[in-house]
Amino acid sequence: MAIIPQKQIFSWKEIENLADLQRFSLLIEYLPDEKLMQRLESLRSKGRNDYPVRAIWNSILAGIVYQHQSVESLRRELMRNAQLRQLCGFDLFKGIASVPSSNAYSNFLKLLVFTPLARSSYKWKTVYKKRSSVERVNSRLDESFGFEKHFIRGIKKMKVRCSLALIVMLGMAYGRVKEKQPDKLRSLVQPAA
């Protein structure tokens, strides 16, 4: 008779798809976002705190790393994946009730919109001259982050989503430098060793 060894029921270390979680861990470990988090937490200081700011921020970054096309897709993944909820910082004892609502994500994303730069200003002209150096980044946004075929409605939501994708790209590159892996600086898909 063959004896089949049983895996532990709640051991997440045995999950085969750990490389994805390692990429996300690299990002949230090295992304220098503390000032932003403090600012967002101060804005919420007297408001409701059903969902922690840092957990929502981390989950939005996870949605970009894992190429979720919409907030609803991200929410479904968070409801399904307890390990991702834990990594983002949501309360594990609440289970799927800790996953923010669509409105909570919309309100959070509204906080992230940045003041526009006037096109008639000298600063705009200086920035505009540098446009040719960012064409590779634009290509990566379209292809790697799925902006070519997106389901985002509204220019404000698109701006926030692009900004978040750029933050993820820079955060992962910064993490590679900190991990002494400059040869993988541009890699969005290979896990950190």
Structural features:
193 residues; mainly alpha
Write up this protein:
With 193 residues, the protein is mainly α. The protein has one domain. Helix content is 54%, strand content 0%. The radius of gyration is 19 Å and the shape is globular. The protein starts with 17 loop residues before the first helix and ends in a 15-residue tail after the last helix.
Question: Summed up, what is this model?
Answer:
With 193 residues, the chain is mainly α. The chain contains 9 helices and no strands. It has one domain.
What's the shape?
A: globular
Radius of gyration: 19 Å
Tell me the series of helices and strands, N- to C-terminal: HHHHHHHHH
Largest sheet: none
Number of helices: 9
Report the end-to-end length measured between terminal Cα atoms. 39 Å
User: What is the arithmetic mean of pLDDT?
Assistant: 79
Structural class: mainly alpha
What share of the residues lie within helices?
A: 40-55%
Total DSSP E strands:
0
**Beta-strand share of residues:** under 5%
Number of domains: 1
Spans with pLDDT under 50 lasting ≥5 residues? 10-17
Give the secondary structure arrangement, pairings included.
Elements: H1 18-30, H2 34-43, H3 53-65, H4 71-80, H5 82-88, H6 102-111, H7 122-129, H8 135-143, H9 155-178
